Task: inverse folding
């Protein structure tokens, strides 16, 4: 790593994503998990550009209906965004295979789509990622008006089943579906809104189009319209739970805390979920909870217990304790948050403020410096004041972090970061033992930059400062080392450093 990398923290995330694509080992995969990518429009026919995205939607829906786990469009889009890949661009087969491996898929469905007059020709095949084997190509022809039937037959053939059978999914009018898909892929919010409104005008029962409109209006800050869109989805719809959850989000944005609490509480009573408990905690944090209705920390604790891998729940819990001036609990949970996500600038900032309030100025200064390295917005941060409005709302439901595609993808990058930090730590330790202190300090600082919570790295930095007569710097580093992990060696070194302080 070049020396100048230490001065460019904003590039770390992009670099790690690139490393993940190139060198990271794939995570463990489920027995059958398919990533369906949009079929290629090889002839670049403008009139059927929307069919490329439609093909992925229909195939994923049909495969799921046939009992095979297929990654849905929202998951696929988030996965591509996580890897900084364009969702609609044509990618090389090697890149697609790597994305599939990182997403925990067992196979990828690829292919082409073309139109000959009013006939649709679909070619699709599955690439098995465990063996690299290409399954035989499936070819299906049919009238464009029979779009849904064509893709149901393709899905069945991909699984080696008979192409015949009853309809797998409800079939909206073709023109309504076309407008729905065009609304999803349109580049401007105005075009998205126009297409999606046309879709629901043509077919008011299209619940997914209403939910897509909710997203467009929410992004635009039109929360009243978004709320009405979510409430349009009927109770009997398979999207009803998702729609009610989004209605609760709109109520929260509109400041209707009592309504949002009722919405989230009813959903949680029907089927508990950490996202619901988190958002109940958000409501109570904003309006003030009571022993009867439940304090925010109680709901955040329930969320953190239910999904221990999600750093947002740890942050919200630590943040709530900080606002309640419970510094011991705040420090514990904020440290848990940054352990799960070392690049969480807000967590470092709040942790620094809490430590300052406790009188731990060295540790506080270190946390604020980490926050500044992560973002320039923290440059002026100082003192024990806790910033307002940092609580984190969950906007998706019923998908634990461990099962989310973007979380699966993030894991190799995080693993690579830890391994790189360990490499610099090991090199720094050897240089320290060889008395090459200046070089050792550089390696240890790189390791700390990549993984701030390493007691051993801080301990070695303290020892280097101590044997070079920089007593106050040694005390600062050793104090941080003990704060991370209290060891006899660090305490002995700190006592030695304090004895050397000028009287």
Result:
């Amino acid at each position: 790593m070049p020396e100048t990398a230490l001065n460019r923290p904003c590039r770390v995330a992009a670099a790690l994503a690139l490393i993940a694509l190139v060198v990271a080992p794939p995570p463990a995969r489920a027995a059958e998990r398919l990533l369906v990518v949009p079929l290629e429009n090889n002839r670049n026919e403008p009139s059927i550009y929307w069919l490329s995205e439609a093909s992925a939607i229909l195939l994923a829906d049909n495969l799921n209906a046939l009992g095979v786990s297929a990654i849905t469009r929202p998951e696929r889009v988030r996965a591509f965004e996580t890897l900084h890949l364009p969702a609609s661009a044509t990618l090389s087969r090697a890149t697609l295979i790597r994305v599939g491996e990182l997403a925990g898929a067992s196979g990828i469905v690829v292919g082409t789509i073309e139109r000959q007059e009013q006939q649709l020709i679909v070619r699709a095949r599955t690439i098995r990622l465990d063996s690299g084997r290409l399954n035989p190509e499936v070819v299906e022809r049919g009238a464009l008006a029979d779009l849904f039937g064509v893709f149901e037959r393709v899905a069945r053939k991909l699984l080696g089943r008979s192409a015949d059978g009853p309809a797998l999914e409800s079939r909206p009018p073709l023109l309504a579906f076309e407008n729905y898909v065009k609304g999803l892929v349109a580049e401007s919010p105005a075009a998205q809104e126009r297409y999606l409104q046309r879709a629901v005008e043509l077919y008011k029962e299209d619940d997914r189009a209403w939910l897509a409109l909710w997203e467009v209006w929410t992004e635009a800050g039109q929360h009243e319209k978004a709320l009405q869109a979510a409430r349009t989805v009927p109770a009997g719809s398979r999207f009803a739970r998702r729609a009610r959850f989004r209605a609760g989000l709109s109520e929260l944005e509109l400041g209707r805390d009592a309504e949002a609490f009722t919405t989230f509480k009813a959903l949680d009573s029907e089927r508990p979920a950490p996202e619901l408990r988190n958002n109940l905690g958000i409501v109570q944090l904003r309006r003030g909870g009571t022993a009867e209705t439940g304090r925010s920390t109680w709901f955040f604790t329930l969320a953190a217990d239910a999904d221990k891998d999600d750093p947002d729940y740890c942050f919200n819990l630590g943040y709530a304790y900080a606002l309640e001036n419970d510094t011991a609990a705040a420090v514990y949970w904020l440290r848990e948050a940054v352990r799960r996500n070392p690049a969480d600038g807000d967590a470092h900032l709040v942790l620094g403020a809490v430590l300052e309030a406790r009188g731990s100025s060295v540790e506080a200064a270190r946390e604020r410096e980490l926050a500044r390295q992560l973002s320039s917005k923290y440059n002026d941060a100082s003192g024990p004041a806790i910033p307002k409005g940092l609580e984190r709302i969950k906007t998706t439901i019923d998908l634990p972090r461990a099962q989310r595609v973007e979380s699966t993808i993030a894991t190799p990058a995080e693993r690579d970061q830890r391994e790189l930090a360990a490499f610099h730590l090991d090199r720094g330790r050897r240089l320290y033992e060889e008395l090459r202190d200046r070089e050792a300090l550089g390696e240890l600082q790189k390791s700390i930059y990549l993984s701030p919570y390493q007691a051993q790295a801080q301990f070695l930095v303290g020892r280097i400062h101590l044997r070079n007569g920089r007593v106050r710097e040694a005390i600062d580093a050793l104090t941080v080392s003990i704060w991370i992990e209290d060891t006899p060696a660090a305490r002995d070194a700190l006592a030695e450093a304090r004895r050397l302080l000028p009287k």
